[in-house]
Every structure is written in C-alpha cells, then in structure tokens.
Amino acid sequence: MIIKFWGVQGSYPYVSVDKKSFHTPCVSIETEEALIVFDGGSGLSVLDLYYKTTHKPVYLFLSHFHFDHISGLLSFSKLFVDDASIILVHPNPNQVKAMLDSLFNTPFFPLSRDSLRCSIDIQTPEQLSFASCQIECHELKHTGKAYAYKLSVGDKSVVYATDNELDRTNKSSFFEFIKKSTVLIHDAHFYKEDRDKYKGWGHSFVDDVCAFSDEAMVEQLVLFHHNPKRSVDSYRELKKYISKTAKSSKFLASIELSYDGMEIDF
Ligand SMILES: [Zn+2]
Asked: What's the 47 CA to ligand 1 centre distance in angstroms?
C-alpha cells in the first residue's frame, strides 16, 4: 500500500511565489476494497482530480471540524454525483451531520445540503469492518477535541495524528496507541522558538514529537501540519535538527518533513 500526501500544512493553503502549492491536511491510502482518506482539507481537491474515475467507496476519516480539515469538501466532486459512495467517519455522527448542514448552506455555500447527490453514510470507527485492514481511534489534545486513526495491516501500522498537543511526560494511552507503529504521521506545527508563546495552543513542538516517537519505538516519523508562518531560516534550521536527531535516535529509522505530493510505501 502507498500513503499519499495531498495536503500537509496547517491553518490555511497558499501558493508560493515560485508556484509551489501548500494545501491543508489530506492523506490517502488505497486498499483493494476502498479509498481511505484522512481529513478533507484543501488537499482533497487535488486527490479529487487524481481519483476522478475510481468507483471504490471513499471512507473519509475526519480528525475534527476546524476549517483547515474540511474546506476541501466544498470542491469534492464525488459529493455531487449520483453513483459515488462516501462514508464519513468520526466518533460523533451527530457532529458530522451538523457540520454538513452548516457547511453546505448559506452563507458558506451557494447550494443547500440537498445538492449533495451521492450516497452519504456516517459511521463511527467501531462500526467499520474492512477485509484488508483494521482501524482504531484515539482522542487527541486539541481545542474542541480531535481524533487520531490507526490503520493496521498484519504487523504493520500507520497512525494519522494531527492537531494534537503532545505531552512528553504523559506516557498514557496515546503512548500505547502509537507504540511500535511503522509510520507515525504527527502534528509538528511548532518549533522550539515558539515554545514560550504557543504552549497550550493545541499543537505539538517538533522536539517533543521526535523524542516521544523514539521512546514509543516508532519506525518512521513523518512531521505534518506545518506552520505556514515558519520562516525560511527556521525551516533550514529545522531540517538540520531533524537530520541530527534521526542519527542519534535509538529506535527511529527516519524522520521526514512531509510535503504535498509525498508518497510512502507502507
Ligand atoms: Zn489543523
């Protein structure tokens, strides 16, 4: 299976002066039976073009409903065709219904919820049953709650955990949830210079994520939900820090900065 990254940035999308696009969260894994998508940020509009002709049901796992994680729904063409099957996954189906009713209505959208012609089902992670993989869910520390999802195939697993303020000292259930995962995609919105100002903002600091993942014996760490306000100098320093940290880690085989268009063989 291949993990495809369609949007990796937090807060808002933009196009840089050299025409590189930076979309908000959307990651997918295609299995034999389904297209599994984590979050519907603006990256979903790029996935939409790539998978235009697929007839597989789309399982869209929502971490939470902040706009950078749902804005791509507005341009997701499968929602507007009769023969598509979309399953929205979240631990609280009532919140998903309320989100759809608000988003596809005035003043956010020109058409009403009735304009969504595809078949939409809303399920909790516990209700799902796939032949090719298993799904688990874990609550995260973020304003208004967010959720992480773990997809396991045999003895391999990928964890998608964004919009989470990691507490390095707390080795409780989340530590167990990510322990020994093959790939961990984790929020790394802030870097060390942000610590004084942004502690308590619901996002993680790069050094905490690296240390926590190494202690949890994660194999491959992918840093995700980048801060769009990160300066060029800070980014350069971050790359150096990652390369140094990866070499000195006890268990982590690699630490990578995710980017739009990245693919990982899983
Ligand atoms: Zn976010």
From this structure: 18
| Cβ pair 187, 209 in contact under 8 A | yes
Q: How far is residue 141's CA from residue 202's CA, in Å, rounded to a whole number?
A: 6
Residue 17: the pLDDT is 67
CA of 10 to the centre of ligand 1 (A): 5
Q: How far apart are CA 161 and CA 164, in angstroms?
A: 7
Residue 216, C-beta contacts closer than 8 angstroms, at least 6 positions apart: 175, 178, 179, 180, 181, 184
**Could you tell me the distance, in angstroms and rounded to a whole number, from the CA of residue 131 to the centre of ligand 1?**
31
CATH says 2-265 is which class?
alpha beta
70: Cα within 13 Å, side-chain hemisphere? 19
Q: How far apart are CA 238 and CA 29, in angstroms?
A: 28
For the CA atoms of 113, 11, 150, 262, what is the dihedral angle to 10 degrees? 110
Q: Where are the alpha helices (DSSP H) in 32-92?
A: 44-50
- pLDDT by 10-residue block (mean), the chain, 266 residues: 96 80 95 96 97 94 98 95 94 97 94 90 95 95 95 96 90 94 97 86 95 97 93 88 95 96 94
Domain parsing of the chain, residue ranges: 2-265
pTM check: above 0.85: yes
- For the stretch 117-162, pLDDT in tens is 998 999 999 999 999 899 999 999 999 999 999 999 999 999 999 9
For ligand 1, the distance from its centroid to the CA atom of residue 212, given in whole angstroms, is 20
